[in-house]
Amino acid sequence: MPTIKDVAQKAGVSIATVSRFLNGSGYVSEEVKLKLIQVINELGYKRKYTAHILASRKKRKVAMVISERIKQLLNTDIGYFYKVIVESIQQNAETFHFEISLLDLRRVEKFDGYLLIGSDALEQDVQEYKRLGKVVLVDHHVEGLMVDSVVSAGADAATFLVNRFLEMGKKRIIHVHGPLKYYGFRDRYQGYVNTMQKYGLLPITFEYDDLHDDIEPVVKKILANYEPDVIFCSNDVIALRVMEKLKAFGYEIPKKISVVGFDDIPEAERLGLTTFHVDKYEMGVTAVRRLYDLLVGHNVQPRKICLHAYFVKRNSSL
């Protein structure tokens, strides 16, 4: 049977790195995580878990519910966030004796449990799945609905960012966000707005749909009406597009304007984008563990699990 040492050797990393990855106990780059997932699957490595998990040999049928929109995004830069979450769920499912099936959001079928990925599910969708089995939302939370969810702490990240730049004397902080019907964008937006208002500053926001809109009119409008110190974007894809346009218009980054994203996709590191790192793999693992607890009757009180994102300073900001 393959060991953790075998995994480390084949992946070309240290045993400590593999251990951090398996335990979610420290930083491992997204590139290395994906490499480790591949190696673990190739070797058939099985992680040792606690006795109560190993003792429960019953296979449980679990649906990973994904909307058509997210399904189409999985192999794009925009969908990288969800790609890692999906691979994390698939890689950890066997350990908890889950038999995973992919289910379209609009096809409601009976399973033991459901992992609803992304924010496309409406409240009535969540209620319908909840009626049929145990449910955990991933990167989604429905306010006022008592259902388990695993999310990144986007509002806290936005608060940290505003505080950081205010301490540097940079008050003209503009937020470019995705459609607010999606929880993650709404959470970061609210954190930004609340923190700006706390200090008596006017929040300045622009909505931009990274799937359908052209970023140039947004950037032109910002530059024509404001003199921003910082442009904080609700994901890295938006931030990289903003950064590209600013450079095309002759603005020095970060000397003239700082640009900050959120997610920490591989392109962010390659292009020097300051951002917030979200442990996408750990979100998937946490969701699987939480669903397991619900299915075996452990800690059944619904909870919202927030994983903090941490600030990664690179060349695009002061």
Automatic annotation (TrEMBL):
All copies of domain HTH lacI-type, residue ranges: 2-56
UniProt keyword annotations, A-Z: DNA-binding, Transcription, Transcription regulation
Pfam families given in the database record: LacI (PF00356), Peripla_BP_3 (PF13377)
InterPro entries tied to this protein: Cro/C1-type_HTH (IPR001387), HTH_LacI (IPR000843), LacI/GalR-like_sensor (IPR046335), Lambda_DNA-bd_dom_sf (IPR010982), Peripla_BP_I (IPR028082)
Domain of life: Bacteria
Domain HTH cro/C1-type: 3-46
Coiled coil ranges: none
Gene3D superfamilies cross-referenced by the UniProt entry: 3.40.50.2300, lambda repressor-like DNA-binding domains (1.10.260.40)
GO MF term set: DNA-binding transcription factor activity; transcription cis-regulatory region binding
Keyword Transcription regulation among record annotations: yes
Protein name per its UniProtKB record: Transcriptional regulator, LacI family
Native organism taxonomy: Bacteria, Thermotogati, Thermotogota, Thermotogae, Thermotogales
